[in-house]
Amino acid sequence: MPSSDDRKAPYHAFHFVIEIDGIQRGGFRECTGLDSSNTVIPYREGNDPLTPRKLVGLQNYNNITLKWGSSDDRELWNWRKKVVDGKTERKNGSVVLLDEAGQEKVRWNFKMGWPTSWTGPALTATATDVAIESLVIAHEGVDRP
Hints:
The chain is mostly beta strands.
């Protein structure tokens, strides 16, 4: 029986940075969309039983959404602006999960990403919340090396 010292503790989800070909930032509030799935294709030949076989279809990757507090840093905005101007620049990037000491623990790499949308902060004169921007990145695959 393994001892309690052999047990792997899960990492906290709050300490991560984003690296995108030349853009390295911390301070993101949220990162979602690190997933992959395959389409299921039901298939049945004429003499098969009434239950279809389930074949593997196309690989799908959801878009990655990043949220962060607005600041005067314009790197992500400038990347999105290139798409708006018809000069789409695809970039590879990583979402890197860190431990409490700031050491890398897990890395998810995405490839051929480009920003599909940017959302500015919701501004309210009576609020005290941080102004949050978001960027959605379409990509062609996630890997965990």
